[in-house]
Amino acid sequence: MEAVTSPQQESSGPITRGCQWLKSLPNKFCDKTMEIARKTKKLGQDDPRRIVHALKVGLAITLVSLFYYFEPLYDGFGDSAMWAVLTVVIVLEFSVGATLGKGLNRMLATLVAGALGVGAHRLATLSGRQREPILLATFVFIIAVVTTFIRFFPKVKARYDYGMMIFILTFCLVSVSGYRDDQVLEMARDRFSTILIGSCASLIVCICIFPVWIGEDLHKSVAANMGKLANFLEAFGDEYFKVSEESNENNKSYLQGYRSVLTSKSSEETMANFARWELGHGPFGYRHPWKMYLKVGNLTRDCAYKVEALNSYLNSKIQTPAEIRGKIQVPCKRVSLECSRALKEMASTFRKMLRTRSAVMHIENSKKAAEELKNLLKTSLWEESDLVEMIPAASVASLLLEIIGCIEKISEAVNELGEAASFRKSNATVLPEQPDSIQQETIQHDSNTAMPVPHCVIVVSE
Amino acid sequence: MEAVTSPQQESSGPITRGCQWLKSLPNKFCDKTMEIARKTKKLGQDDPRRIVHALKVGLAITLVSLFYYFEPLYDGFGDSAMWAVLTVVIVLEFSVGATLGKGLNRMLATLVAGALGVGAHRLATLSGRQREPILLATFVFIIAVVTTFIRFFPKVKARYDYGMMIFILTFCLVSVSGYRDDQVLEMARDRFSTILIGSCASLIVCICIFPVWIGEDLHKSVAANMGKLANFLEAFGDEYFKVSEESNENNKSYLQGYRSVLTSKSSEETMANFARWELGHGPFGYRHPWKMYLKVGNLTRDCAYKVEALNSYLNSKIQTPAEIRGKIQVPCKRVSLECSRALKEMASTFRKMLRTRSAVMHIENSKKAAEELKNLLKTSLWEESDLVEMIPAASVASLLLEIIGCIEKISEAVNELGEAASFRKSNATVLPEQPDSIQQETIQHDSNTAMPVPHCVIVVSE
């Protein structure tokens, strides 16, 4: 558009401008198409399961619509067979948890509401043709009002919202249709069986062909969030204590990864809600403690808030001069690095569903470094320095100390979860039980072996 | 259950225990019922619009089901009339935005997919009875796969997800049904008109009877979030600098209000998505800049992260001794109070949709106090104090300085939004235009008059 209104063409007539606009149209169309193609490709590459899901939906719908094409199948249900197709479209979701939740909600609600609807119809017909519509309308009104209100209960909303809607829907369908059609029982039965077929078809396709377990996604996401914080803390030391400004222009995206943790609460809650519907799969049992994932997630987020505060000192205008920062560089870097290692260790063992206390060693190390840092701050090194200039560095030190506390809490929560979900004990910790007094030693020893130690092989060439 | 397994009754037989369990059943039932009643009451009291919404749903469904009871209305549509009832159950949501979004999505998708379905049916019949099901199945498969994949595009997901589902649904319904029923056109027409009736009935009931505008909720929520931060900052000074521990046991809920701001992102985004569907209403035009609310919300959240950091110093184990804290008490309290006032002022004028720059005065005041604070920290007052003990207080001071920056950003975003949404200018600011150089003065003057100044009237009694 800018080309059209450029001063050069301002004077040309509307026809010329129109022509130019038309000429530019194919180009614009091309650009737009290219952009969409690029986005589509990215969407598929980011998560190839999306393509698989689309194909699964196509397959399930095509399969169920066979009911319509084959005479013998069609004869059983007639037009009601269409409900099976509709059910597949509605119920088949991306993850097994969501599909199971919707499918079970839909089947149960249809069953209960269908039965109630038949009952309401019978009751209404007893009262005579005149009063029948009034009674039916009253029933429908009461059921609709009560059920709609129940949908506001947070627990119901989280798990049974869809079922409640289908309950109203089926009740209306069965009881009201009964006024025109006396075969209410057949209708209710047909509706239920077609919905059963549709739901089962969705579930079979969803579970049997490349299933997407949302519980697994939640598990990975909680571990990944710890990893993101670890990445920040790993890079923080070097970034904060660097003397020159050389890498200021460089890509700092690795420092921004943690930001998605700050706003992950609602997606974690949704995932946990869906995960609770899922059957046992792989290492996750049916009664896997998904709620405890939310606790670990919340503690990780608390830690992310501290990291956010830490991050603000990286870009702050008021900076402690490099030479003053240099004095606390060693212990600060060590705290940050050990915290990062503890988080990485936790993320890695958590992802593998192992129970080790190997992170404890890194936490202990960071605590030792914290003591050093405190001692350093207590010395008279600072007498000559300006307090205002000291504040940012002091705040950074104080935040690092707090982060140790956060990570300890995460570690406890992860251990609790590991026990509740009976994660495997890591090989390294399978040692005879030791009295408490020397347990600390054992843990440190264990974690030393469990920790991924970089192997340096020095080959001396002659 | 605890009574049953108490040691005293451990020895009693299973029958006795069974009897006692049965005896306790009515009590438990009573307790449960009371609890549900209490929760229901609370749910209604917290937001009476929920009760109104439930009644609205009941009314709309009952109204639309009249189609079924009255002969002349029924004759027009026959069994298809049921689609109107189903549409009401599905489309009528709590807020106008959500209802409009769903209704328009449903109507448009039904129209387009119905037309395409008829076309697909015609094309398939041309190929002969044998190849018809193969062609139909191919069409259905392709449409289902492509549309399902399109649903993954974030922009589509946010606004047209429901429409995409209905598109697949209607396309299958029309094209597949056509195989058994040659009156495809009538079916498509009936489906569209019943859905039109259902959607319109939902919209009329939703908009005409106590409408819930989600845009208004978003507007209030953004203002309320600023207020929550202001409440914390107002109380923070007194809480942090209090000498004794007397109020430690007191209810500190007013200090925790800000926590909900930390996790408000997803609900704000949902509200903004729905709000964009809404018609103009009250002071909100049709093209109200709802997206800019998200920007203000994000900046408010950034400020909330700082407040979270501040809060951790209230409960920190390592505390600066009260006498050292006392030295920076006056400017710190002033910064915190002026920040709180600025936020309150913004929240209040924002809620009223006024454009004033009255918060600027408070920001300027807080900046002055910040200068004082910085000067105080530069003095030699601190020579004799321990740096480790100083750190928490110094960090608090530094955080307060950063919060000023955050609030300035919020103020700018609020002003931008005010301009884009053409908020009214407050009376106090309607003054002849002044040159830039003295604008600052004017603003301060304006805001002085706009600010709620406590009037002290001293009556001298004789």
TrEMBL record, chains A, B:
Membrane-topology descriptor: Multi-pass membrane protein
Parts of the chain that traverse the membrane: 51-70, 82-101, 134-153, 160-180, 192-214
InterPro entries linked: ALMT (IPR020966)
GO biological process, any: malate transport
Similarity comment: family membership: Belongs to the aromatic acid exporter (TC 2.A.85) family.
PANTHER family to which the protein is assigned, alphabetical: ALUMINUM-ACTIVATED MALATE TRANSPORTER 10
Stated name of the protein: Aluminum-activated malate transporter
Native source species: Hibiscus trionum (Flower of an hour)
